[in-house]
Design goal:
By secondary structure, this protein is α+β, with helices and mostly antiparallel strands. The protein is 51% helix and 17% strand. A six-stranded mixed sheet has the order 5-6-2-1-8-9. Strands 4-3-7-10-11 form a five-stranded antiparallel sheet.
Length: 373
């Protein structure tokens, strides 16, 4: 296959992975769960723009400004309340012993005199919500069911000092608590499997930049043994910085972490075009780039575990990292399956694919460095 055909192949691949610009998207909606003999409550702060239908589907949508929202007319604020409740009812349902539990919602901010919204360092307009259900008698378990077409996760925190933290991916559910036959309330346990799904979900389908980095590794040497080794080394590296960042030991500017991640993708793509053999240099780079990607994961996991401290962080960290590794192996397996029918053109696919990875990385560097928030 000549150079012209390789360039045409590269252009086709570039267009094939062109992802549509997303609307205003957040990674998770977090609540604090409270329970007593009369009520079950979920308390949280939701991003208003994420609840508005005209904002959820708009390419490159931005959050509403808190300062401007405070100046909005009463009828517009009332609309925000209606849309928030409507959207949350689409996303969240509760059941006790497999029977639907009706819930009502309150907006504490509207009871403030004068009206006020939660403070936010980024001037994002947040709205406090209080979801309330009447407690049901008898033994059983309360389950939260979560649906979101924009792929956010549901997170419930029980004791910020070290209690359980549970999560549910879109289309999933999680147990909030159980009541045994004697009437004793059993809080849920932080489940490794839930956080494994969370880590997997962050890569597939959400992590296009992470996917391209892994594909860049694949394109240099499409062989199982070295790729699994690189994947494990990469996971080890990002596990280190992810843990350090989540525990507050290190803190780096999020914008420049994202720029560095994009640069690592571009570098891998370009290196593939000039270096054909896997050597020590690539192994060292995989580890160094893994450290950078770990800081990126930390911004995501930090938002999901905001307010959670101490030993309560341990299991989510382990599960999230295992989920990321499982997603990486899945990506590599899919790449091998896709390559197999076209294996006679392996070299051309390596070249064309590497061009795509390099160009996409450069595109992200420019966007994130000069046009990002």
């Amino acid at each position: 296959m000549n150079l012209f055909r390789i360039l045409i192949l590269s252009l086709g691949l570039l267009l094939a992975i062109q992802a549509p610009a997303a609307g205003h998207v957040i990674d998770a909606v977090e609540f604090e769960f409270q329970a007593d003999e009369k009520e079950w409550r979920l308390l949280g702060e939701v991003d208003i723009a994420f609840m508005l239908p005209e904002m959820r589907g708009v390419p490159d949508g931005l959050p509403l400004s808190r300062a401007k929202t405070l100046q909005a007319p009463p009828e517009e604020l009332a609309r925000y309340r209606r849309e928030t409740e409507s959207q949350l009812r689409k996303m969240l349902s509760l059941s006790y012993n497999d029977e639907t539990v009706p819930w009502r919602i309150e907006f504490p901010d509207f009871k403030k005199v004068p009206f006020d919204l939660p403070e936010d360092a980024g001037d994002t307009a947040l709205l406090s919500v209080k979801i309330i259900a009447d407690a049901k008698p008898g033994p059983g378990r309360l389950v939260a069911h979560w649906e979101d077409d924009l792929e956010s996760e549901f997170i419930a925190v029980f004791d910020e000092a070290g209690g359980p933290v549970v999560t549910a991916a879109p289309g999933g559910s999680t147990v909030l608590f159980r009541v045994d036959g004697a009437g004793a309330v059993e809080p849920p346990k932080t489940r490794l499997s839930e956080w494994l799904v969370s880590g997997f979900h962050h890569v597939i389908p959400l992590g296009l930049d992470h996917l391209l980095f892994i594909l860049g590794l694949f394109l240099m040497a499409p062989k199982w043994k070295p790729l699994v080794g690189q994947s494990l080394l990469f996971t080890l590296a990002h596990s280190v910085t992810l843990a350090l960042a989540v525990f507050g030991v290190i803190s780096l500017p999020g914008k420049w972490v994202e720029v560095a991640i994009a640069a690592s993708i571009a570098f891998i793509g370009f290196e593939n075009l000039f270096v054909r053999r896997l050597g020590r240099q690539r192994v060292i780079l995989v580890f160094l780039f893994g450290l950078i990607h770990g800081c990126g994961f930390a911004s995501v996991l930090g938002e999901k575990l905001e307010g959670v401290k101490g030993k309560a962080l341990a299991l989510p960290l382990v599960g999230f990292n295992l989920g990321v590794e499982l997603a990486q192996i899945t990506v590599l397996a899919a790449a091998f399956l896709l390559l197999w029918p076209f294996r006679r053109w392996t070299r051309e696919i390596q070249t064309g694919g590497s061009i795509v990875v390099a160009l996409w990385g450069v595109k992200w560097v420019i966007e994130r460095a000069f046009f990002g928030a």
